[in-house]
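Throughout our pipeline, every protein is held as a single compact record rather than as scattered files. This encoding replaces a full spatial description with a residue-level series of whole-number codes. The remainder of this section carries one protein's record, kept here as part of the documentation.
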Amino acid sequence: MLVDDQVLLRTGFRMVLAAQPDMEVVAEAGDGAQALEVLRTAEVDVILMDVRMPVLDGVEATRRICGGGQHEGAPKVLILTTFDLDEYAFSALKAGASGFMLKDVPPNELLAAIRAVHSGDAVVAPSTTRRLLDRFTPMLPATSGEPARPELERLTDREREVLLLVAQGLSNGEIAARLVLSEATVKTHVGRILTKLSLRDRVQAVVLAYETGLVRAGGAGA
């Protein structure tokens, strides 16, 4: 589903997507309110969502669709933004989006991102995630040093260690090298972390790590 108030932009994206054998544009909307209405009847796997739109912006639409990442079976949302370090993109990640990309992204990268989101992966580059969170961490509620969520107590020491490295922007391969583990083992740890914390993807895990004070601005562990 394409959600953007610029018809020309939607047309361009639709042409790119229509050429793919494994993709189909099943719906379009010009703002977040229209998107919510369309979703009442349309079956959608992935939504390409603009953030700045009239009536209802992409952040609030994402929040209602994803429920902060908690709605099981909800479409995955990929935010499209004009600016890299954008407060709207940050808010959308907190609202449950699986990632964000710039609107001028090359077509092959956009297609890869859609496929990644559909498979359950997040599509914010680690370096971008880190810079984004470092910039907007002051917007987060102050923490007392104690975990803000009791769920964090469910993590094993190893899982907590993996979460810290995920939050610092390391890929599974980099975490495996750092902890001298196989990449498959790291992937298993990440999956367990997401399950225990009721999170949809690693982007949500990164945001949670900052919100709870596990990681401070600059990427350092608390």
The two ends are 40 Å apart (CA to CA). Residues 142-147 have pLDDT under 50 and may be disordered.
